[in-house]
Design brief:
The structure holds two protein chains of two kinds. Chain A is an alpha+beta fold. Chain A is about 30% helix and about 20% strand. Chain A contains 16 helices and 20 strands. The two termini of chain A are about 25 Å apart. Chain B is mostly helical. Chain B is flat and about 85 Å long. The two termini of chain B are about 15 Å apart. The model of chain B has no long low-confidence stretch (mean pLDDT about 90). Classes of the chains: A alpha+beta, B mainly alpha. Chains A and B meet through helix 3, helix 6 and helix 13 of A and helix 2, helix 4, helix 6 and helix 12 of B.
């Protein structure tokens, strides 16, 4: 499963491995199903007010793994705790959609009673939002919004989750043993409301960082599944029929510093973007069944109508076109790359990023006649360089926080902390702000499509390369495991065939 | 001797303080920070976190607070593993690394020393060539290659041992072999050259001419004198092996201390960087002192009261 979890406190955790354990041990108001639609979980049903602001959840009679009932008060307390500045939760912003959530977290108000979450009685929870948020029910399945057991958390707010006896959850499994840096053993939670659905008798997460090691253990049968196999092994695993390729809401791209010459010229940015062969890059270098990206928002996000896909709706926003690229470069004053200054690609030190950068270096040289230098920096140094706009072209990747195109687009607003390109566009900002509170899915999708078109087709602030895939290696006897495009794994319906 | 040891202890404490200060300054001078993320955090959240870990205090105050706590034996909370103290990380990881390191050292001594003696006694014969040939491989093959190879052959192919993880004696064998390749080979080469050196001394010839058997000469005269270089080398080597190896522990997924030396730096987990560095420094200083004491015991010509070193 990767590294030792940094925490198993759902309110404080940020990583995917942590979320996988928490999804096994806790349950929010909703749980995402195999098709990534939020389904009733601890909430049995809900109603949404006409203005989209007030959600009233009816809770089922669920229990904690010590037999105590899970109530609406647990949710109210847990959400307010996650927002409390004292808790210092990194993902507190997942609760900023709730009325006064941000104000309370930033210290603008100090009275938690003003936060828009209230238990009307033991089994009714009323949530008031700042503005209509179409994906709020999804967020209810996210770890930050899971309830925690007040008594144990209050007794030891910082480290309650280290003692497995204190790790009281309301989810399908419970932890019986946690050996740091080694493994976490789980068994079904006898008090889980849907206990009958659980077929596994035990579940162990091995904390192994080296994927080659994981593969060895998989080969000896010590391991039933693991993710992200080494690139060199992907072909072989595919042939053995043990590789599952799933959607992953992520885009791998190169970002242009639009304040640096010659990238301040949109024709140069377009020429560079059009002059690489993404499919070849994927087939020869990346090799994980990734999809070439001809836009920024990946597949798997909801579009304007029920069941539609945002990407399919929007289609490709540019084409790979060598002739056009050469023409644009000539128009910008660099016919056949003559006079073009040496361009530097910045990436964080990693074998994969290096190989991709080398391939692109070669393609730009061959196709456009321009010289490219490669610079690699250690992760945090690289983040600093990006922040300071101390680069020309930088490798980057983005993984969505929830399943909606917004998580890919609002990061490019002028004042967004994640916009490290130096680019800003008032019309783009306007569209995002309008889409945020738009409750009409069709109109909202239209606004988002227009925003994406400005970002890519018109301005080419980023050069999309590929859409990530979620690669899992799974033994043939393991069935029913569900993979979320956010990288989460759901073991509720998992079972093992007789061998 | 007592005053010598006292003097060494005082200088040891000074060394630790200097290392701690230098590490603190170096660590803070590299870019980034423990809560630096690719996804930018809202400023308020960043402030909340910094306040919680007192990272918003002036640097000199953070330094003084840290040193004060350190002298009390408290390495503070980890910045990466929320709610976990660095002391508990060391308490959990060190015993595992120490067990693995301990058997590794014993193995390398038990194999390396006899191999070196046999080589020296059969200089340039096949035994010598064979042992030194293997030793060259042991010294030159990097541990990640050795570890991967051992895992592939003995776990994946032959299924004699588990591929990775920790817990039973069977889990110890492969990582121990991977770790001991270098020290075993090094000990063997060191032992061989020092034995050859001793063998050419006059007192050996004297002992032989008195009619003592080879076995008695080797045991009584050669071994005790030729083992000194090994002892010298053993101090720093044992400190490194006992506190864990990043490469071998990562490959075999062993929950030791070794991984933290590297990962804590990537994570900018300031307190863990400090904690494991200081801990390593203490072990190193202590083992070097032990080595010097062992010298005087093995070789009466070395007296610790004299201003040695």
């Amino acid at each position: 499963m990767g590294a030792e979890p940094a925490t198993l406190d759902p309110a404080l955790s940020t990583g995917v491995p942590e979320a996988i354990v928490e999804l096994s041990c806790f349950e929010g108001l909703t749980r995402m199903d195999a098709n990534n639609i939020p389904q009733p979980a601890i909430a049995e049903s809900w109603t949404i007010s006409d203005d989209g602001l007030v959600y009233t959840f009816k809770l089922r009679q669920a229990k904690w793994n010590n037999g105590e009932p899970v109530t609406a008060h647990d949710f109210e307390w847990s959400w307010k705790r996650a927002l409390d500045p004292e808790t210092a939760a990194e993902y507190a912003y997942q609760l900023y959609y709730i009325k006064n959530g941000e104000a309370y977290n930033t210290g603008a108000i100090t009275d938690p009673d003003l936060v828009g979450v209230k238990a009307l009685d033991d089994y009714t929870l009323q949530v008031t939002l700042e503005q209509p948020t179409t994906y709020f029910l999804q967020l209810c399945a996210f770890p930050t919004l899971m309830p925690v057991y007040r008594k144990v958390v209050e007794a030891d707010p910082e480290a309650w989750f280290y003692n497995v006896n204190n790790y009281i959850g309301n989810g399908p499994f419970k932890i019986v043993r946690w050996e740091h840096n080694s493994k976490i053993d789980l068994v079904p939670n006898e008090h889980y409301w849907n206990r009958d659905a659980i077929k596994l008798t035990n579940l162990t997460f091995y904390l192994i960082e080296d994927t080659q090691t994981a593969l060895s253990m998989f080969d000896t049968g010590e391991l039933d599944m693991f993710d992200s196999p080494p690139a060199t092994e992907i072909e072989g695993l595919k042939q053995r029929g043990v590789l599952l390729i799933n959607d992953y809401l992520g885009t791998y791209y190169y970002m242009f510093n639009v304040t640096a010459e010659p990238l301040d010229d949109v024709r140069v940015r377009k020429a560079l973007t059009m002059a690489i062969d993404r499919q070849e890059l994927i087939d020869r270098v990346v090799r994980g069944g990734q999809l070439p990206a001809y836009a920024y928002v990946p597949f798997g996000m909801p579009g304007g109508t029920v069941g539609s896909d945002f990407r399919e709706e929007g289609g490709d926003l540019y084409k790979e076109d060598l002739e056009e690229a050469k023409k644009l470069l000539a128009e910008a004053g660099y016919p056949d790359g003559k006079g073009f200054p040496t361009l530097a690609i910045l990436y964080n030190t990693s074998e994969n990023h290096k190989k991709i950068a080398e391939a692109i270096q070669e393609m730009w040289k061959k196709n456009l006649g321009i010289d490219v230098r490669l610079t690699n920096q250690e992760w945090q140094v690289y983040l600093d360089s990006r922040d300071a706009l101390d680069y020309q072209v930088a490798r980057a990747g983005w993984i969505g926080d929830y399943v909606d195109p917004m998580t890919f687009l609002d990061m490019w607003m002028t004042d967004s902390g994640n916009n490290d390109s130096g680019w800003g566009n008032p019309r783009f900002d306007e569209l995002i702000v309008a889409a945020r509170s738009n409750m009409d899915p069709a109109a909202r999708a239209k606004q988002l499509h227009e925003a994406e078109k400005i970002l890519i087709a018109d301005e080419m602030v980023v050069m999309p390369i590929y859409f990530y895939t979620n690669l899992n290696v799974v033994q043939p006897w393991v069935r029913g495991v569900e993979f979320s495009p956010l990288g989460f794994i759901n073991f509720v319906n998992a079972y093992v065939l007789e061998r | 001797m007592g005053s010598y040891i006292l003097k060494r202890l005082v200088s040891g404490v000074l060394v630790v303080l200097i290392v701690a200060t230098a590490t603190f300054m170096l660590m803070r001078s590299i870019p980034g920070g423990p809560f630096r993320r690719e996804k930018a955090l809202p400023a308020a959240i960043q402030r909340n976190i910094e306040a919680r870990y007192k990272l918003n205090d002036p640097l000199w105050k953070q330094y003084l607070d840290y040193m004060k706590n350190m002298l009390r034996g408290d390495f503070g909370p980890s910045f990466k593993y929320i709610g976990r103290s660095v002391n508990s990380i060391i308490e959990d990881g060190f015993p595992v690394s120490a067990v693995l390191g301990g058997v590794t050292i014993i193995f390398s001594l038990v194999v390396g020393i006899p191999a070196g003696i046999i080589s020296a006694l059969n200089q340039n014969k096949w035994q010598d060539n064979l042992a030194m040939g293997i030793a060259i491989v042991g010294v030159s093959v990097p541990s990640f290659v050795m570890a991967t190879l051992l895992m592939y052959v003995f776990a994946v192919k032959l299924r004699w041992f588990p591929a990775a993880m920790w817990g039973t004696p069977r889990h110890v064998v492969l990582p121990m072999l991977a770790l001991s390749a270098f020290p075993t080979a090094f000990f063997a080469r060191l032992m061989r050259s020092s034995t050859l050196d001793v063998l050419s001394q006059d007192y050996i010839r004297t002992a032989r001419s008195k009619g003592l058997s080879w076995a008695a000469v080797v045991y009584k005269h050669v071994l005790k004198n030729s083992v000194l270089p090994i002892i010298t080398y053993l101090g720093p080597q044992a400190a490194a092996i006992l506190t864990g190896s990043f490469v071998v522990e990562s490959i075999f997924a062993i929950p030791g201390l070794g991984r933290y030396y590297v990962t804590s730096i990537y994570n900018r987990d300031y307190t863990t960087i400090m904690g494991v560095t200081i801990f390593y420094c203490i072990i190193l200083v202590a083992l070097n002192l032990l080595v010097d004491i062992a010298y005087s015991w093995l070789d009466p010509r070395i007296k610790l009261t004299e201003a040695k070193e």
